[in-house]
Each structure stands twice: as structure tokens, then as C-alpha cells.
Amino acid sequence: MAGHGAPIFEHCVFSFVESRDNPAEQISEVQKTIEDHAGIVLRLKRGNQIKLDEVTHIIATTSDFPQYSDARNAMINVVKPTWILDSLYKNKAAPTRPHTPDPNLIFSSTTICCADIPSGDKDAVVGGVLAMGGSESSTLTKLCTHLCALTMDHPKCQLVKEKNLKCKIVLPHWFDDCLRLGKRISEEPYLLPNPEIVSAGPDDFLKIPSSDHIHGASSPRPESLPILTDSPRRLDVFKKKAVMISQDLAIGSRLRKVIEDLIIGGGGSMTSSVHSADMYICHWRGGRDYQVASYAGKDVGNLSWLYHLITHNEWTSPMKRLLHYPLPESGIEGFSGFQITLSNYGGEARTYLENLIMATGATFTKSMKETNTHVITARNSGEKCSAASEWDIEMVNHLWIEESYARCHMQRMTDPRYTHFPPRTNLGEVIGQTPFDMELIQGLYFPNEPTPSPSNPRSLKRPVMHDKDPNLSHPKIVEEDGSASEQEDQNVSQKPVAKSKKPAAVKSRTNSFPAANVSTPSANRRISAGKENNTPSSTSSRSAKDRALSNLHGLAPDIALYEKEKKRKGAVWGGERALNKIDKQGTAERSSSPAAKDDEGELLGDEDTRTPKRQRTGLPPIGIRLLITSYDTWVDNPTKEDSDKKKLRELGILVVPDARQGCTHLAAPKMVRTKKFLCALAIGPTIVRTDFIEACVKKGHLPNVESFALKDADAEKKFNVKLKEVIVRAKANKHSLLRRIPIYSTKDVPSGSETYRDIVSANGGTLSVFNGRPVIKKVNPEEDVTGPEPVYLLSGEKPEERKLWPKFVAMAKDGNMIPRIVTPNWLLDVSMAQQLIWKELYLLEGQ
């Protein structure tokens, strides 16, 4: 450690953000340490603004303070107090990234060291940790927080035990699950020497955890004001703030008087003009006052947020917690027909999810019924989860509804993050960590500047788009004056589309726990009525048209100016050139970001922290997403596999492990009926021979893809298809070949039901396991205007499977459907041909 007075912090100017985790007493101690080592500290009174033009570092334990985004935009380092200690230990300024309070970097303040991990898996784990804010040490030191190991036999593990180091020895599966979820879960079930994920069963008792993230934010309209009465205190969170309370809160005069007295007593003031307000409190996202306040960048929250400020006497952003922000009057599009129940959540987390479900416009049911469309569960265990599998009901974790609400658009349940349930973990421990996507909120609810009122014609300052969760959307382009780019005004009438950036998944290995299977909502008319997306109402359609028309009028002056500038001689800015420059800037920013990701979650770093002397030039953009099947060269040769994948990535080729990650190309030695081949075929990819991989690796540049096109006349004759025609049909099908075809399988079907489930899902359908219990509703043939339709059961010929056949036939006939008990070859042939085909030879004998 540095000696007293060493100028470690010379030329550094610090400012502190006081909070519950960083009280004034602790700040005073750290300030003295900084000043003893040549640093300068600008102490501020609570509530005052940090002088961003004077400081170089801001010490804060959280990113939830008003000037965080402005500090980031100004390239000011925001670090935790641990950065000071780390710098003193190293006797020089430590890297700031591992000490950032940014909640998106889930491994910040984490230093990992690896023990007996295979080299390929080690690179994957370390890469994920580095990309998500952590750091790595090749040797075991006192600064290491986690030791990644498979057993306790390694000398590093024994050293931790002998020296009693404060270092947790965890299985690599912990990193897998954290990266898959994009959230940091507890290490307890993964700790060696006796990890619960190995010793305990999936259905063993697991305590329901509590979460601080939803404390005081479980309801948008609290029943009472939670004022602390243990000791009198003065509120200063409202100091020099003007607060406006909207009439849509519908609170009584007595409660309103209490709230006003608290605000005024704390140095704040009340106002009835939104233009003079600093905080606007309302219940719904609507009305001119809401739009004016939001567009001007004022703090806009609901009654729950106001109560939270009063209770904790500490500012927090209303965008941080979903139920602290005003509710959408018409809910979220697509949720109105859903009936959703909860499982494995308790206490305040359950109340929070109940209110969130109702805020989306869906119906919450306490008990499980066949009419339910979704089960939101914290773990894949329990009666409701079993019933969901039997009744073909979608089962997801809470991240699905949180991110749907935050992005104002229903997220696809095919994202594996929403169907992943780590063993021995109740996901209630990471509930409430999803913030709003401010860009999408603006695009939907206040895309244009509201017309100023005659009494206050001053123009409103356009808000700066804050940095957001990288899992939610791309970073915002910010102009030099702090105003948002004009790009955010385009296409405001369209439904917002936010790409869900998936966390990088660590390479699978022996004994790893696979993610839960993903299924697509069934659209069958008898089985899951109401799962189709509802047609937007005429009201919402008119609203969208009005917004688009208003936006067009607002752009009229700019369009006229642009046309005038085009005619002027010597004009060098505008049009395509401007667009190209913005595109280049955006690409450069994304490729140079320390934690930049591609759309499927590949982690890209601009520097290798393990070899800091080597400057990394960056990887080219991904042009080909390649799925590989039946490639023998990499079998039992992980070293060559890792080396070849790196070389391919340097050519712009990303090898994806799953067709669901959007493959553009498929490599196979011939036409094969593997799960990967059939799932990818539904996309209609470019299919090449596997020697395309060898050519890329050997030549070091991308060869002509067409010269490696797969041609297999023998297989085409065997399967009675033409590969070119299959690709054309697949593109025309658009993943919906089996969308309306009800398909079931027995539990013991050859090759396993999970294999066929993925193939059916890739083609837009849903496969459920049939256990003898009727799941098709009875239909009167006279009332069935569509007539009988076929329903399929994939089965083998084991005795236990044959016992189910009569029950399946009876169920199908009760539903006025045609029962077809078939071999799995029917599904494989349909998938290979990319068209519905039927022959009697598919039927099993004796049904």
C-alpha cells in the first residue's frame, strides 16, 4: 500500500454523492485519505448540484442520482469508494471500470481467478466477466472475490481454505446463469465444496427471498402515506423544488394538505403551473401537463414515487422502478386478452407482479385454470408449473413482463432469458431491477414539443436521453448542446421495436444445466383461445395517426430549409452525407465500447485486460451467422474448435449454437435430419458445405459463398425434395408452417419429446406432451363451422405409449377433430420439405 502522502490522486478533483450507503461520516474519512494523497475534494451541501466542469471523479455508491447521465456524457469517472482503496493498494490510480456503480455491469467489483477450468471454458467465463464490468487475476491475491473451480482439489482452492481468504469458490455454472439472465443472482447454491445445485433436487424446498428493489414500489397507488414517526425530521429532498400534483390522482383534501405541508416544511413549494414545476406528480401517462413536463425533462412520477421520496428523504429517479412512473391508460398492446397467474413469488414481490400484470392490461388470476394463458414463476417447480406443461400454458419468469412493460411492447417469449430457471434459485431475488426505456416512452407518449400556452410562451428545453440499460436498447446519439438528435422524431407513429440484447452465454460443458425449452404461443382455435394478438382498437389507431400527422407538421419547417439548402451552391452538409456520417459515428461508438455487444450477445471488448500491452484493433461487423451441424473435425478437439471460431469471427462470421439466434447460413456435409438442420431450415438460410469452414480458416479471407453451395442429389432423391425449392418455401412460410397444427407427443417417444418440440417451435407451432388427460375442449359438430381438422400424436410403439392411444382418439373426437397417431417421421419429413404432406404410411398400426 502507498505510503502516507504519496501523490496518487494528483491532478484529480473529487466530489461525493451522499446517500444511505455513503453517509457524511464515511465521506469525511475518505476525503481525508484523498487529501493526504494530493487529491482535491469539492464538498457540497446536500441537494446542491455537482460542478461537472470542475471535477474529474464522482464518488457514489449508486447511479441513481440526478446528474449521473450528465456526468457520463461529460466523460467524468463515476466510481464507488472501493476505487480509492484499490488505488491505494496498487499505489497508482486503479482502472475505474471494475468500480462503476452502473447496475448494468453485473460483475463490477468482482475479481475472478480460475483454477481447474478447461482453457476454452475459462476464456468464455473470463470474457463474460470482463465485458460485464469485472476483472481477472491469473494469480490468487487478496483482491480476488471469486475463485472459479470444478472441485476443491486444486492448490488454489486449498490455499483459500488454509489462509481463510475472503474469496468465494464457485462453480462456473454461476457465471453461466448470471450471463443468461443478465442479472446477478446469489452464489450460495454454487459454492464449493457442497453446491446445492448438485446435492439438492429441483423440487426440494427453497426459501422465497425478499428484494430491496421493489420496497416502496409494489403499487402505483399506495393506500396510505408511510411517514416515519419514530423521530421528528426535516425533509430536504424537496429543498428549492416546486412540486405540482395533478388532479388525476383523485386524493382527498386532507391527504393533499398533509403532503403539501411536508413539501413546504422541507423547503419546497407547491405550484399549479407545470411550466414552473420541477416535479410533476400524476397517475396516467396522458394530458397536456404530462407531455409538457416530460418533454421539458422534469421529474415525472406517480403517488408511489412521491411517497418513496418522503419516506427515505432521498432522491431517486422515477424511471428506475416500473411502478414509480405513471401508468399507461390503455395498457400495453397485446396484453388485454391474457389471463396470467403467479407461482413461487411471495410477499411484496407477489403484490408488485399482480399490480404490474394489471398495469399491462392483462387479467390476474389467483388460482390456476385451463383458461390461463401464462404462468409467471420464479422457478420451474410446483403444481402450477406441472399443470402449465400439461395444459399447454406458457411459462416464463418475471423478466418477460417487466421488460414488456418497460419497453411498452410485448416481448417475444422465444428469448431464452425469459424461460431460463437456474436450479436452486428463486428469481424473486432479482425482481424489480428493470428500468424504463426512456427513448420508447418518449416516442409513444410525448414525441413532439407540446404547444406552449399563451400565458407562458417560453420554449421548452428538450430533455437529454439518459444512458439506458444495454439490454433494453442502443445508446442515444446526443448533440453537442445536450439536446437529443433529430433521429428520435422519425417513425413516431409506428410501434416501437426494441431489440432485446441477450447476455452472452458461457460455452456449454459437461454437467452444465441447460436452459428451459422455449415454446411459441399456440394459436389453435380450441386449445388456447385468446393467445392471438388483438387487433388495435380504432381509438389507438386514430391516436397513432394523430401523432404521425402532428410530427409531420412539426418537421415541415426543417423540410423546407433542407430543400432550400440543397439548391445552394457549395452546400456540403445534409442528406445522404449526413446520414452516412451518423452511421459511421454510431458504428464507431458501438465497436469501441468496452462492453459493446452484437444483437445476439457476443461480447466485444476494445482491449484485452489480461494483455494490456497488446492493442486490439477491434472485430469487423458480423455479416454471417453460421450454424454448423454434423461437422466431425471439431469433435474431441476443443482447441481447434476455439481457434477456428476466432478466425471465423475475424472474417465477420459468428458461429451460433442455435437456430433461434438467427442464423443466416447453415453448414453441413450433406442433407441430414438432425435437429439443428431441420430447425435452421425453417429460416430459409443459405446452406453451404462444411468445407466452407476449412476454406475460410485456411485462406484467411471470405471466399465466394456460392461456390460452396450444398448439393446432394442422393439425399434429395431419398427425401423426395429439391433443396432450392425447400428454401423458397421456407422463406414464404415465415416460421409459420405448423402454426395452426395441434401436435402432441408421448413422453417416451423415440429421441425424446424435447427434440421434436424444438423442431415444431422453429416452424411456429407448439408441441405438448400427452399424458392421457384431455386438453382439447369438447365441440358440438353442428356448431363447428370450420369442420373437423387433424390433430397429431407423435408416438413410439412401447406398451406404455399404446395405452395412451385410445384416450387420444376419444379426446380428438370429442373436439370434432381427426386423430392421427403417427411416427416421428411425419414431422421430420414435413420439416425437411417445408410443406404439409400426408400419407397413410405415417400412421402407426393398431391405433
From TrEMBL:
<feature type="compositionally biased region" description="Polar residues">
    <location>
        <begin position="509"/>
        <end position="542"/>
    </location>
</feature>
<dbReference type="GO" id="GO:0006302">
    <property type="term" value="P:double-strand break repair"/>
</dbReference>
<dbReference type="GO" id="GO:0005634">
    <property type="term" value="C:nucleus"/>
</dbReference>
<feature type="compositionally biased region" description="Basic and acidic residues">
    <location>
        <begin position="464"/>
        <end position="479"/>
    </location>
</feature>
<feature type="domain" description="BRCT">
    <location>
        <begin position="4"/>
        <end position="101"/>
    </location>
</feature>
<feature type="domain" description="BRCT">
    <location>
        <begin position="335"/>
        <end position="407"/>
    </location>
</feature>
<feature type="region of interest" description="Disordered">
    <location>
        <begin position="444"/>
        <end position="547"/>
    </location>
</feature>
<feature type="compositionally biased region" description="Acidic residues">
    <location>
        <begin position="480"/>
        <end position="489"/>
    </location>
</feature>
<dbReference type="InterPro" id="IPR053036">
    <property type="entry name" value="CellCycle_DNARepair_Reg"/>
</dbReference>
<dbReference type="InterPro" id="IPR036420">
    <property type="entry name" value="BRCT_dom_sf"/>
</dbReference>
<dbReference type="GO" id="GO:0035361">
    <property type="term" value="C:Cul8-RING ubiquitin ligase complex"/>
</dbReference>
<dbReference type="Pfam" id="PF16589">
    <property type="entry name" value="BRCT_2"/>
</dbReference>
<feature type="region of interest" description="Disordered">
    <location>
        <begin position="583"/>
        <end position="619"/>
    </location>
</feature>
<feature type="domain" description="BRCT">
    <location>
        <begin position="623"/>
        <end position="710"/>
    </location>
</feature>
<protein>
    <submittedName>
        <fullName>BRCT domain-containing protein</fullName>
    </submittedName>
</protein>
<dbReference type="Pfam" id="PF16770">
    <property type="entry name" value="RTT107_BRCT_5"/>
</dbReference>
<dbReference type="InterPro" id="IPR001357">
    <property type="entry name" value="BRCT_dom"/>
</dbReference>
<feature type="domain" description="BRCT">
    <location>
        <begin position="102"/>
        <end position="192"/>
    </location>
</feature>
<dbReference type="Pfam" id="PF12738">
    <property type="entry name" value="PTCB-BRCT"/>
</dbReference>
<dbReference type="GO" id="GO:1990683">
    <property type="term" value="P:DNA double-strand break attachment to nuclear envelope"/>
</dbReference>
